Amino acid sequence: MITITDITNWLKTTFGTIDAAQVNEWITFNPKEPILFNTAFFLGLFLLFYPIYILTTKAKTRVYRHIYVFAFSLFFYYKSSGIYFCLLLFSGLVDYTLAKFLYEETKEGYRKFFLILSIIFNLSFLGYFKYSNFLIDNYNQLFEGQIHFIDVILPVGISFYTFQSMSYIIDIYRRELEPTKNMLDYMFFVSFFPQLVAGPIVRASEFIPQIYSKIQLSRADFDSAIFLIIGGLIKKTVISDYISLNFVDRVFDAPKSYTAFENLIASYGYTIQIYCDFSGYSDMAIGIALLMGFKLSLNFRTPYQSASITEFWRRWHISLSTWLRDYLYISVGGNRRGSFGGFLFPSLFFAGLIAWATWYYPVSPIPLVIAIASLLVFCLTFLLAKDKKRTMFTNVNLMTTMLLGGFWHGASLKFIIWGALHGIALAVNKLFSDYFPSSKDKKITFWKAITTAISVLVTFHFVVFCWIFFRAKDFSVALDMIASIGELQFNWEQWAIVISGYENVFIMIAIGYALHFVPAKITQGLKTIFDRLPMLFKALILALTFWLVAAMASSELVPFIYFQF
How far apart are CA 348 and CA 358, in angstroms? Predict the structure, then answer.
């Protein structure tokens, strides 16, 4: 039987001695320890928050619920980014006001003015915090300038809530959405803490109607929420963090210090690490929101099972890919027309790439060959197409979307290259589909199974290759790693030594991929079994998960990868 003494001892073990200094630490921002879903602090905080939240949902008015959640969300963001919670408030005030003016305006010219003003406002904030030093660095290198870098810290999640705010005013401009009834409701939407700092990017049109609906948490929703939280905790803390700290980070920090085989395994390791990290966070965010009665859209759908790069982007970071499609790709013309913006960014990219490769030619001719070949391949994707004009518009606009999508992830050449690789691959895939369309016959034949398996394998390894640029410290480190992998030779004795030296890491990588590639029917079967368990057993499984997370946790805090974006 559990006694008061047992509970007191657990609290002391988990949270330490509770005194004034400890309380001050809890309520004060510490940049070295941002609040994370997989920490004991958040668990304790949520256990305090949740019962009161349930009480607010019983009130006749939703005002109490919105004030309570908004205040908690601000504290949550303060514990993530410190004083930058003021930026969230200021940004929300401006966006809400501009959206209100836009909605009430009848003249199209003024409506467009308020829209452009809001977009400039949001992108200016994002540009200052995220891209200022990138622009300064490039200016100094190109023109031998002496401009000093700006001492600025990137607010956690600014890219996510900026896109969220932009979707709100764009939908109002398109007359697809009515504004919230008051500013509190809008701030509830923008600051909703489960998805505030790392997504999923919530659409105003999907979320705002829910805040005016009665909160209903069914038994099925509760079971799904707990199942998602358990899975997210395991993916993030047990698999991703362990792989990262014990192998992947070491190799990517100094690829020349490791063998070709270790570099190859590190690239496979990072591929499953980033999936488990990001999808794990998304699962926890969706689960926590579901416990509060809000349904967020699925953000990942086993992306490495994709048979094409197009399918990959329908399964990976779905909230971002659909946002880019609806608000960027379609805005620059989509598959219907060309535009100045659509042609501008691919032109700048290929011109800049060839110019840099020409400058680098005395050192090595390889970059120039790759640059010209990349441009040639991209041009051939529409020159060889059946409908050349329409395909050119589509591919150019796709390239623009992926270049800006890469730049959204970070102010670095490596992210632009990552986006460009995916843009070119999407164009190639479209050309291939033009001549070899997928069969609509759902019947699985031996030949179809073989071709699908090959397609999945090729797509997977292309994605792995691109992740090298995404993860590497800079572009040169990525090239060092690729060069090392290119020297790979079959040497079973050397491989066996590496495997035995990192035995637990290899086991975790294998478990990560096994969980990812397990058939959906098995996952659904496990979910069905979990749903049928008595509540006590579910609580024990959740407690066991938290114990496992605590046991696997390292002394070094590992933030979610997408916190930096």
Answer: 15
**Rounded distance, CA 205 to CA 178, Å?**
9
Taking the alpha carbons of 15, 19, 25, 28 in that order, is the dihedral positive or negative? positive
Q: How many helices (H) and strands (E) does the chain have?
A: 25, 0
Write out pLDDT tens, residues 40-95: 788 888 888 999 999 988 888 889 999 999 999 999 988 888 888 888 899 999 99
Of residues 416, 509, 514, the one with CA closest to residue 469: 416
Average pLDDT over residues 253-271: 92
Locus of tokens 């939407």:
189
For residues 242 and 73, give the distance between their C-alpha atoms in angstroms, rounded to a whole number.
29
Map 79-90 to HEC letters.
Answer: HHHHHHHHHHHH
pTM, to two decimals: 0.88
d(CA 67, CA 84) in angstroms, rounded, equals: 20
Cα 245 from Cα 558, distance rounded (Å): 8
Cα Dmax for the chain: 77
Averaged pLDDT score across all residues of the chain: 86
Which amino acid type is present at position 507? I
* SS3 label, residue 521: helix
For residue 169, the tally of other CB atoms under 10 A from its CB is 26
Q: Give CA–CA dist 353/377, Å, rounded.
A: 14
C-beta of residue 541 within 8 angstroms of C-beta of residue 326 = no
C-alpha to C-alpha distance for 320 and 405, rounded to whole angstroms: 9
Q: Which of 129, 117, 132 is nearest to 161 (CA)?
A: 129
For the cut 60, the answer to whether the pLDDT of residue 297 exceeds it is yes
Give yes or no for residue 15 having a pLDDT over 60. no
Q: Are 481 and 330 in contact (CB under 8 A)?
A: no
Catalytic site positions = 409
Question: What would the pLDDT profile of 329-378 be if each residue is shown by its tens digit?
Answer: 988 888 888 888 889 999 999 998 898 888 888 877 878 888 899 999 99
Q: Where are the alpha helices (DSSP H) in 410-517?
A: 413-435, 446-471, 475-486, 492-501, 503-517
3-class DSSP assignment, residue 183: helix
- Residue 419 CB neighbour total at 10 angstroms: 26
Q: Contact, 260 vs 485, CB < 8 A?
A: yes
Residues 145-155 have pLDDT tens digits of: 777 777 777 78
Q: Which two tokens stand for residue 256?
A: 């020349």
End-to-end CA distance of the chain: 47
Say if residue 411's pLDDT is above 80. Answer: no
Residue with tokens 């989509």: 334
Residues 230 and 544: beta-carbon distance below 8 Å: no
Instruction: Tell me the residue length of the chain.
Output: 565
Convert 102-128 to b/e letters by CB count within 10 Å (16 or more is b). Answer: bbeeeeeeebeebbeebbebbeebbee
Cis omega before residue 200 (within 30°)?
A: yes
Q: To 10 degrees, the CA torsion angle through 460, 465, 466, 469?
A: 150
Of 236, 167, 226, which Cα lies nearest the Cα of 201?
167
Q: What are phi and psi of 250, to 5 degrees?
A: -65, -45
Tokens of 518: 């397990």
